[in-house]
Amino acid sequence: MMRRLAVVLLWCLPVRVMAQSLEDVRSVLAPLVETYGVSGMEGPVRDAVIRMLPDWARATTDTAGNLMVDVGQGDPLVVFVAHLDEIGFVISSIRDDGSLELTPRGGFFLSLFEAQPALVHTGTGSIPGVFLPRDSTGASPRRTPLPFRADVGATSRAGADAMGIRVGQTLTMPKAFVPLAGTRATGRSFDDRVGCAALILALRRLNPGRLHHRVIFVWSVREETGLEGARVVADALGLAPARVHAVDTFVSSDSPLEIKTFADVPLGSGAVARAVDNSSVTPPALVDSLYGVASSRGIALRIGTTNGGNDGSAFASWGVPDVPMAWPLRYAHSPAEVIDLEDVRALAHLIQAVAEDW
């Protein structure tokens, strides 16, 4: 199988001129990127998605907080899932000196956030602060990491309380969608706001009358903390789905310091079939079928392997095949992720094609 994948990685389909403009892509993606939603606090992102859905789409929210649009009738049932949440921190305690002790939500390098601006999300507004740098000389001989903290300017616990700061609130770093040269852009939380945007863009182009079976679009919660929202959906649907398509990042080695022998999918080369990762292996026949759908519509598609997991693997205990679809991303889980809008457009068109033709 690995030899097969290595060969397929060399294939790339030509990009056909598509009706959906890059401005359409940017107009959906930018507001999502600039909305905050650490795992467990995805409400603002969910509300933003609802506002951008086509008029015909009827969205529902389950008890876990997952957002869903159910369209079409009949078998097979196909599920698409992208996650609403982003990495960040939760306040675990407030010290006597007013500083905030933090626990990360999701996996990332804490050093990327040290000595950087911070925002405390209170539910009614955001309070600015600073992530404190850690003194490496204070670590124990066993190199136990020191507590990660933030400073909002308070000098006492009572002072922080008076500002409206409470244990359990979340923190992130300020962020913005920033266009770069050509069709590139940088920002934070492209993982997985690109996936969320791609589902919206696909629904906007989707003709419900072309569907020959039932399709459920899911925007899941708490992916970064263990696929929690996706597990709720998977257990609710049980054996019903014929397959699930997780729509998430392809962590690419297309960056200056990476070795190119693994996950080398250049930005700007289109969508990616995430055939093997740490959580799932897509059956080769389904990879071939996905490639066939892309080929029939002239959609650029690469096939590759990468690290990380995806929401689709939450369906594995029910025997539902996972066929993840992705886009290449540089500098994943950092404050300066980089994407190419052409890849986002290709991904949205692939989702539409899969829903209508497969």
**Span between termini:** 23 Å
Under CATH, the topology of the largest domain can be stated as Aminopeptidase
User: Taking strands numbered 1, 2, ... along the chain, how are they ordered across the largest sheet?
Assistant: 1-2-12-3-13-16-14-15
Number of strands: 17
Largest sheet: 8 strands, mixed
Radius of gyration using CA atoms only:
21 Å
Q: Which CATH architecture of the largest domain would you pick?
A: 3-Layer(aba) Sandwich
CATH classification, class level of the largest domain: Alpha Beta
SSE sequence, one letter per element: HHHEEEEEEEEHEEEHEHEEHEEEH
Helix content, binned percent? 25-40%
Q: What number is the mean pLDDT?
A: 91
Which spans of ≥5 residues are poorly predicted at pLDDT below 50? 1-18
The SS-based structural class is alpha+beta
Structure in words:
The chain is of the alpha+beta class and 358 residues long. It folds into two domains: 2-86 and 188-357, Zn peptidases (Aminopeptidase, 3-Layer(aba) Sandwich), CATH 3.40.630; 88-172, Peptidase M42, domain 2 (Elongation Factor Tu (Ef-tu), domain 3, Beta Barrel), CATH 2.40.30.40. It has helices spanning 2-8, 22-33, 43-52, 157-162, 190-205, 228-237, 284-296, 341-357; strands at residues 59-61, 67-71, 77-83, 88-94, 100-105, 117-121, 126-131, 148-151, 170-172, 178-179, 184-187, 215-220, 241-251, 271-276, 301-305, 325-329, 337-340. It has an eight-stranded mixed β-sheet. α2 crosses α5 and α5 (190-205) crosses α8 (341-357).
